[in-house]
Amino acid sequence: MQFPQTENHLREIRASDINELASTELGKNRRYLQLQPGSLNCDLTEVKLEGALLVRERLSTGVQIEAAPPDNFFPLGTVLSPSEGMRFCGNEFKKNTLIQATGGEWSLNFKGSLEYVGCVLSKEFLTQGAELLTGRAVPPEWFVSRVRLTDPSALNCYRHWIAKTIFQLENEPGLMANPDIRRLLSAKILQLTLNVLNSTEEFKAKLMPPTRRLRGVRRVIDYLKAHASYLPTIPELCAVALLSERSLEYGFREQLGVTPVRYLKLVRLNGARGELLAAEPGVMKVVDVALSWGFLELGRFSGEYFRLFKELPSVTLRRG
After folding, report:
1. Spans of all domains in the chain
2. Secondary-structure class of domain 10-202 per CATH
3. Gap between the Cα atoms of 40 and 177, Å rounded
4. pLDDT digits (tens, 9 = 90+) for 240-276
5. Could you give the angle at the alpha carbon of 217 between the alpha carbons of 212 and 218, nearest 5°?
6. What is the rounded distance in angstroms from the CA atom of residue 310 to the CA atom of residue 156?
7. Cα–Cα distance for residue pair 83/293, rounded to 1 Å
8. Domain boundaries 212-319, corresponding CATH code
9. How far is Cα 199 from Cα 142, in angstroms, rounded to an integer?
């Protein structure tokens, strides 16, 4: 399996809205939700090689990312600038850890800004290369989403090589026209990936089997994707989660750092923003969007909207 081939092997995206960002990453099955106040800016750079994709992404404020990558890809990442409260699948991110987002659905959330680098290998490229280089089959545990503790030296080589290579190719994009250079870069990232994976051991506080509390939080998150505008009550969310109010609140604070009530409001504000950006000025009114997402007081809605996105909903509607 190879990544789709186009003449442009370097892709750079600058986005100031999570809906715009998600629309550029349809093949990754990603969903973004802004969690923290501030103007969101995202810089994404991708370098397409033979069987591999190098990635660098910067996000300026706290976001929740949920994804279900296609099962023929092997995404692996590491953080350049750690963010406060960062969790992967509910597990706290610590020093010298590697994010292995390879086993179906995963989620990542953080409070501050975040910058990470990584690579996405095709599973065919990884498995064939690993067998050729090591003489062994790829272990099944490599295809499980989790946090891994790895050797600092191997991790630094992996992290710095990706960051340096992306920086060089941004400044000399003509190099990517040479297929031999792309082939050599692919071989290098495969070797670095094998080094960092082979030197890992299971993170002692690793991705544990979901507790009852975290399973309940997951059910509520999935429920709110379809029912946020319905204004569910806390008792209704407890019924969805199969948890008490106290356990549900503790689970949300543990996994996302916010209460269920706050998370619901963030989902509704993000949903309203998406609708405002998609609306035609003069056809849709701010008050209509606010009401459709359960905000009954326009003034309060505008104030909460401004505190999260740093612009008034009327401004969002005009530039939509």
Report:
1. 10-202, 212-319
2. mainly beta
3. 33
4. 999 888 889 889 988 888 999 899 999 999 999 999 9
5. 95
6. 36
7. 30
8. 1.10.10.60
9. 12
